[in-house]
Amino acid sequence: MGPWGTGAPDSDFRSLAGEGFGTFLYGTDRHAILQVAFALAKLNDPNPYWVDIRASHDTVEPDDPVGRGWIPNDHLFAVVESDARPLNAEANMALWTVVRSDEPRSRIAEFTDFLRLPRAVQDGISGSRSDHGRPIFVIANADRARSYYPLTAADVRPYIDSMLHAEITPIFAAVGPPGPGRWAFDFVFEVRTQHLPDWRQGSLACERAPPGLRVVSGQVRSIDSIPGIARTA
Q: What is the pTM of this model?
């Protein structure tokens, strides 16, 4: 496939923060995926937020964006994988005790879907702000919480919509083979770095993108040709 766009190398990726967009990023190399996720977030918001899903309280990788000190403490929300599950019981309780009976059905769904998000995500969203449009939230290591969430696109989309309704833009970064739930996202990228000595020698493949943008489904671009991504290392 041909390269993306005809303008500046980074410009094609500054559309991820558009209103109503959620992004899913996956591959086999955790280091590469997190580097690319951080770079894409920075291209859309100079001060992105980072939700770090960890296998345990002390599993910070020294060479990922958190380990390198790239995420300020007030933009970092760490959560162990068992605490990243959806808060279904709390959301259902709120449905009966907080929401007024005359609220529109769509508003009720929006509110309860937000309350199903993990507490760290809710807290981060509530205090977030950006001088460059919607704040960007990277949900890093999302694969560690995958077993707690639905598998189908139809069931995954409400979680994305709850973030979009809260006026943030989510970028999910996950390791391993993706499931059908990824089709709930507006952008889907694969970071292809397998068997390469340097992740920057790999490529970024677009599996899905909204129509009418310079990023087009099916196109592949080498990572080292995108300065905004390659220079993060």
A: 0.83
- Provide the b/e sequence for 48-78 (b: ≥16 CB within 10 Å): bbbbbbbeeeeeeeeebbbeeebbeeebbbb
Q: How far apart are CA 59 and CA 53, in angstroms?
A: 9
Q: Where are the beta strands (DSSP E) in the chain?
A: 23-27, 49-54, 76-80, 136-140, 169-175, 187-192, 203-208, 220-222
Tens-of-pLDDT digits for all 233 residues of the chain?
334 444 445 667 877 777 779 999 999 999 999 999 999 999 888 899 998 988 876 667 777 899 899 999 999 988 888 877 776 544 444 433 444 444 444 444 554 566 567 777 777 777 777 776 788 999 999 999 898 888 999 989 988 988 888 888 999 999 999 999 999 999 999 999 988 888 889 999 999 999 888 888 998 999 988 878 877 76
Tokens of 105: 């059905």
What span, in angstroms and rounded, lies between the C-alpha atoms of 215 and 11? 10
What does the block give as tokens for 4? 């993306």
- CA-atom Rg of the chain in angstroms: 17
Alpha-carbon gap, residue 132 to 10, rounded angstroms: 17
Residue 23 φ/ψ, nearest 5 degrees: -120, 140
Residue 230's Cβ-side half-sphere holds a number of Cα atoms within 13 Å equal to 14
* 196, amino acid identity: L
Burial 83-94 (b: 16+ CB within 10 A, else e): ebebbeeebeeb
